[in-house]
Amino acid sequence: MIIKSTLSIDLNEQISKIDPRIWGSFTEHLGRCIYEGIYQPEHKTADEDGFRQDVIEAVKKLHVPLIRYPGGNFVSGYNWQDGIGPKDQRPTRLDLAWRSMETNQFGLHEFMKWCAKVNAKPDMAVNLGTRGVDEARNLVEYCNFPKGTYWSDLRRKNGAEEPFNIKVWSVGNEMDGDWQIGHKTAHEYGRLVHETAKAMRLVDPSVELVACGSSNHQNTTFGTWEETVLDNAYADVDYLSLHQYYDNFDDNLEEFLGKSVDFDRFITDVVAICDAVKARKHSDKQINLALDEWNVWYHSMEDDKKQKPWTKAPHLLEDHYNFEDALLVGSLAITLLKHADRVKIGCLAQLINVIAPIMTKTSGDPSVWYQSIFYPFMQVSNYGQGIALAQKTDVPTYKSKTYEVPYTDSIAVYNPKTHETVVFIVNKAKDKIPFTLNLANAQFDSLVAATQFAGYDIHQTNEDQSMKLTPLNNLTVSKDHVNADLEPLSWNMIRIKTEV
Ligand code: AHR
């Protein structure tokens, strides 16, 4: 059978404007994300703040607009006051989440400084595990209140005269998970969010709040968790979070690449729950989604079990991503764009060293290396901007162990600033696929660029930096359509100047 794939778009049929924050990321006090990742004063590239400039340059390539911090599981046992003030007076603590030693040499002020250097805004998480309403409202006061109070003046004393004005706040982390320090039932957490959000907004009414949804689609409490939390806190929050990591422990490529079907279903399910609660409450308000942890995660799990506890910056969650991981990450990114009407925040988890697109070495050159997943994420974060277009696709499916999977995943966006239509396509077949993009209500002008990530063994990883994007040739552009041949198992991006 010759598999063909067609994507038909109409510039007048739009899903939604894309919120740039959909391409955010996440940095946690975990393993070598902060220490030896962001912060390493003794490193040869360290700047006056101890931040690695090689890492800053790599992060800038990804253009992440929003970065969640300081956790993750870490935040549920964290005292943010440990990370402020003179560094020589900060306590070393046990981090119970990752059984590591936390020196607190990097904290709130350092994070804010670093965010400014990589041109990102913070998404600040508060501890609702061991702490609660009081810590959250104090932190908002410390960060956002101008001056004249205990906490705002302490911020000024610590060197930040102007308020940080942090807009986005994660109200807890994965509180549905029994691994979470201070894990709660949905009812307990829903009530706590209601009260915490109330206090946070009393300090600063302009904050945007993200409540914890489920830690994964497969969690036994999925569905009832979302419903109960929103029942208690619908009016208090703006976003509900979703976390999802995929693995390929079975080494089953067809099934693994099919997991974007589950991701799509997860988002659709949560939208349905949010809207059901909305209807029941006769509310005019819409809750949007924050996919604030998503990625592949499994390669490092066995090694992590062997790590010695209570060390500083241990090598934890250092997945080395292979080619098939890059294909799935591409597919998951396409899925986010398909739901751009409701997914307003996304955080690829994480950013540096820990299940990350960017890895650092403590010695040798180059001191930073890019994982396979860096490439599709860099392309969506740079070019997946503007308006997501509704798609009519015509492509056969295959049946994996669990899913009915289209052989291609694709989405087109139109960027009114650059006048470009940009299409992203993953070919999940082991054969070449002739691909056609049809356009209505506009005209293609000229090709800007077409690239592919293709031709690698599915298990190849990129420590040697040999994996590259290459030109996608044999492509024809006419006024109302584009034809291309997609390599077997490939990630593709085509950019075309378009007259509207
Ligand atoms: O990103 C790694 C961990 O995954 C986070 O700390 C937690 O929120 C999730 O379980």
UniProtKB/TrEMBL annotation:
Pathway: Glycan metabolism. GO terms for biological process: L-arabinose metabolic process; polysaccharide catabolic process. InterPro entries: Alpha-L-AF_C, ASD1_cat, GH, Glyco_hydro_b. Keywords: Carbohydrate metabolism, Glycosidase, Hydrolase. SMART domains: Alpha-L-AF_C (SM00813). Residues 292-490 form the Alpha-L-arabinofuranosidase C-terminal domain. The keyword Hydrolase applies. Its EC number is 3.2.1.55. It holds the Pfam family ASD1_dom. GO terms for molecular function: alpha-L-arabinofuranosidase activity. It catalyses: Hydrolysis of terminal non-reducing alpha-L-arabinofuranoside residues in alpha-L-arabinosides. It is an enzyme of class 3 (hydrolase). Belongs to the glycosyl hydrolase 51 family. Homohexamer; trimer of dimers. This is non-reducing end alpha-L-arabinofuranosidase. It comes from Lentilactobacillus sunkii DSM 19904.
